[in-house]
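Per your request, structure below.
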């Protein structure tokens, strides 16, 4: 049995706690590795080493830090297929989807190559008699990233690249279900020139998470996962005086207006609903057609497209559309939610519960599932399913459809398909969701914008990547300076205005 490690001070380090977690191959259901789970003492020792390495890294000028990002980006490109393989074998994604996972992380690294421009301060000369004012953006010190299983490359890169480019040291705790990609990225960063100790990859469970939240040296925490855990981490981090940006769950709707191109809308729903087996926080899980005629036309087009989807292990070829769910528990939960939809009166159009793949009978596979006539009181609507299940909620007007999105407790992403510009502009203006797509199903912004949801999908006031990341991982220091010349006037005891 393969035994994985932590990455501490530039080298692989065996775990010392005596506690381990199993890492599965989701396609076969077999344990493929053991992962050490860090103790509080191990986590604190990694933080102490990171704190020792950070000042010299912060003192390295921004151009040189950017050159490390440039080399890192080149190495990611060079090792793209290897990284995708690591993602696929532990998560179960198809290889094309896994390459996309790596690519979207790489794009944030590319933005961080321009970090010097983002780290510039401001300057005002002669703000008062002989007085200049200027501001500096300075690193926080040691920061932490706690990342999920569903994007083993992308989200660790979203966290580490801007944090490191700003001059911080980072403690990265990847998901214990998909740890190998983060360990390989740490190796590539060292090859790119990152000093030892500036990035520490510490594997662990709740014990390690709580140690991160309680460690006084760690100044900021970034998290992506479920809403209950996001709320927990945000509350505990803030109570301990840390900055926190915590991104949680989602229930993303796509409204289909009567004037929409139905074929394009159906294609968009298939890709956005079933890609990565639905294990995306930006997956479209609710289709909202306006009018019964629209709904009937949409369902008619969806059925043959969904029936053609190929489900299987990533090893079955590049034409596999999606693979297994991450764990047996996820598999059983999704099947249970499908059963609840049937019990509560939704129309089960396509049922993926009985999918069996020859040679992979113990894999965590669920086939593509489609519901019609779902209502907002049903569990399949209220819960984030995180599986290959698309629910159709019929509405009779644009306002009714919009209210579904507005009233939902989540606000991560949403989309509308329409040929009418007025409707699209109204939707974008009024909807209370952080990321909006117009004739675009998964509106993940490009890496020089920012990614973030509203409502219970996000906690904290700054988004991931883009300009917000540089604000989150730095503090602003403002200096008021005066250099005396000529005759000295003596002391002034009053608080003098700058006139």
């Amino acid at each position: 049995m393969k035994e994985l490690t932590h990455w501490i001070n530039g080298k692989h380090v065996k775990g010392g706690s005596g506690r381990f977690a199993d890492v599965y191959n989701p396609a076969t259901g077999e344990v493929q590795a053991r992962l050490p789970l860090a103790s509080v003492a191990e986590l604190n020792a990694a933080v102490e080493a990171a704190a020792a390495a950070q000042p010299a890294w912060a003192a390295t000028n921004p151009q040189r830090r950017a050159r490390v990002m440039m080399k890192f980006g080149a190495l990611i490109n060079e090792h793209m297929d290897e990284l995708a393989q690591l993602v696929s074998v532990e998560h179960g994604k198809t290889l094309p989807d896994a390459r996309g996972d790596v690519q979207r992380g790489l794009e944030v690294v590319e933005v961080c190559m321009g970090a010097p421009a983002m780290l510039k301060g401001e300057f005002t000369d002669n703000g008062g008699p002989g007085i200049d004012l200027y501001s500096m953006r300075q690193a926080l010190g040691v920061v932490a990233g706690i990342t999920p299983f569903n994007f083993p490359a992308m989200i660790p890169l979203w966290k580490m690249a801007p944090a490191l480019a700003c001059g911080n040291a980072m403690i990265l705790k990847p998901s214990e279900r998909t740890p190998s990609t983060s360990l390989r990225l740490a190796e590539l960063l060292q090859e790119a020139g990152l000093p030892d100790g500036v990035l520490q990859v510490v594997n662990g469970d709740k014990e390690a998470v709580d140690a991160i939240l309680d460690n006084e040296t760690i100044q900021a925490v970034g998290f992506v996962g479920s809403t209950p855990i996001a709320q927990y981490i945000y509350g505990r981090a803030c109570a301990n005086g840390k900055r926190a940006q915590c991104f949680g769950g989602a229930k993303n709707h796509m409204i289909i207006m009567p004037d929409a191109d139905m074929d394009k809308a159906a294609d968009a729903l298939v890709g956005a609903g079933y890609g990565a087996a639905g294990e995306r926080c930006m997956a479209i899980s609710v289709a909202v057609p306006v009018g019964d005629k629209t709904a009937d036309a949409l369902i008619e087009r969806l059925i043959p497209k969904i029936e053609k989807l190929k489900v299987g292990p990533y090893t079955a070829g590049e034409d596999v559309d999606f693979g297994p769910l991450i764990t047996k528990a996820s598999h059983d939960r999704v099947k249970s939610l499908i059963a609840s939809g049937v019990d509560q009166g939704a129309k089960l159009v396509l049922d993926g519960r009985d999918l069996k793949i020859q040679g992979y009978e113990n894999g965590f596979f669920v086939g593509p599932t489609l519901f019609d006539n779902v209502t907002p009181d049903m569990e399949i609507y209220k819960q984030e399913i995180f599986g290959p299940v698309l629910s159709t909620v019929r509405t009779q007007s644009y306002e009714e459809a919009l209210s579904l999105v507005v009233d939902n407790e989540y606000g991560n992403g949403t989309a509308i398909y329409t040929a009418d510009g007025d409707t699209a502009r109204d939707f974008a203006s009024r909807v209370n969701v952080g990321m909006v797509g117009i004739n675009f199903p998964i509106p993940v912004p490009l890496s020089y914008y920012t990614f973030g949801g509203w409502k219970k999908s996000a906690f904290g006031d700054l988004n991931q990547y883009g300009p917000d990341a540089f604000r989150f991982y730095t503090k602003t220091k403002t200096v008021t300076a005066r250099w005396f010349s000529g005759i000295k006037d003596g002391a002034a005891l009053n608080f003098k205005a700058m006139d």
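The longest strand covers residues 131-139.

Regards,
D.
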